[in-house]
Write a structure and sequence with these properties.
Layout (H helix, E strand, L loop, with lengths): L31 H9 L4 H18 L4 H40 L33 E2 L2 E2 L4 E4 L4 E7 L4 H19 L3 E7 L12 H15 L4 H10 L11 H5 L9 H5 L4 H13 L15 E4 L2 E2 L7 H10 L4
Parallel strand pairs: 4-5
Antiparallel strand pairs: 1-2, 2-3, 3-5, 4-6, 6-7
Helix pairs in contact: 1-2, 1-3, 2-3, 4-6, 5-6, 5-9
């Protein structure tokens, strides 16, 4: 039986692809420098930044892939550089502040004198020369009490001991603030002022041993011109050289004040240098008689009848109040 219904239409066959043509568009090649930038970001931040910028330039010209990789490498590279810079800054701050404080604490130089600086903090093992091997003067000559280790002005019942170094800037502050009043109290018989000139800051005078020479000059003055001792001390501080300089020469030290007797020969002979160094060793190692401290840990150190003044260096009222309240030993 013949089928009179038309046959259903056949589906069109797909056209075969053209010869040599891929059925899908080819993905663009990934830029090599973009890959290097991303990888470098985890190891060398600067390399990641450099290669990242180069990669973006090439991608704009060649239309290669990898823009996202290059940008990621750049971001990570800049973050790494910033982190490294911050770490270096922190390390420098720690080196400049924390480490010196730790070193000072280990050396026992922090705690007793809140006003001391690193340069005004002596160390107990600092020995300025071999003073113990030299013959030292004895007895009392003028205002120099060699056996007791100080220079003395006045005869008052209250004992005021001032330990200082001629090159110590904080000692200068104390002298400028309170030196005149102490001189007046010594002159009117209220106090006995005892000066202890130390030499440990020789280390900041570029090899000229300025502290030792200035201390010896003060002692020359005490023996030859005792009436001008405090005037000479004031002149030493008024002409104090900066730390890490050579300081004054001997002729300049001799010419600081007008004296009845010249101290040039005394200075030229190096007299009292060994005695000044020996006093420094004694002060740094102790024991300090009749005092509430055993040794000197910083300058200036001021004792009133053995009690340590720990107030401000530039407040004369505070110091006079301390002096008055401790005048009865």
């Amino acid at each position: 039986m013949t089928n009179t219904e038309p046959a259903p239409p056949r589906a069109p066959e797909p056209y075969p692809p053209a010869y040599g043509q891929s059925p899908f568009p080819a993905a663009p090649k990934t830029n090599t420098l973009a890959i290097i930038s991303l990888v470098s970001a985890f190891f060398v931040s600067l390399a990641a930044v450099i290669t990242g910028h180069l990669a973006l330039g090439q991608i704009r010209r060649t239309h290669e892939g990898g823009r996202g990789l290059a940008i990621t490498g750049l971001v990570l590279g800049y973050v790494g550089i910033a982190a490294t810079t911050l770490a270096l800054v922190i390390a420098l701050v720690v080196t400049a502040t924390v480490i010196p404080l730790i070193a000072a604490a280990v050396n026992g130089a922090v705690g007793d004198q809140p006003w001391s600086s690193s340069t005004s903090e002596p160390q107990a093992d600092e020995a300025n020369g071999d003073a113990s091997q030299e013959a030292l003067p004895t007895g009392t000559v003028g205002a120099a009490h060699f056996d007791d280790g100080y220079l003395s002005v006045g005869t008052g019942a209250a004992l005021v001991d001032v330990y200082f170094d001629p090159m110590c800037p904080y000692c200068r502050q104390f002298e400028e603030t309170n030196g005149g009043e102490l001189a007046a109290l010594a002159s009117d018989g209220t106090i006995t002022l005892r000066l202890h000139s130390l030499t440990f800051l020789d280390r900041v005078s570029q090899g000229t041993s300025y502290s030792t020479r200035a201390s010896a000059a003060l002692t020359c003055q005490a023996t030859l011109n005792p009436e001008n001792l405090l005037a000479y001390q004031a002149a030493l501080f008024a002409n104090q050289p900066a730390e890490n300089t050579v300081g004054l020469g001997d002729p300049e030290l001799a010419a600081l004040v007008d004296n009845p007797v010249d101290i040039d020969d005394c200075l030229a002979a190096g007299e009292y240098q060994a005695w000044s160094r020996a006093n420094t060793e004694q002060a740094l190692n102790g024991v300090i008689a009749d005092a509430e401290i055993t040794r000197i840990r910083g300058t200036p150190t001021v004792l009133v009848n053995g009690r340590v003044y720990d107030g401000g260096l530039t407040d004369p009222a505070e110091f006079l109040d301390f002096l008055s309240s401790n005048s009865v030993g």
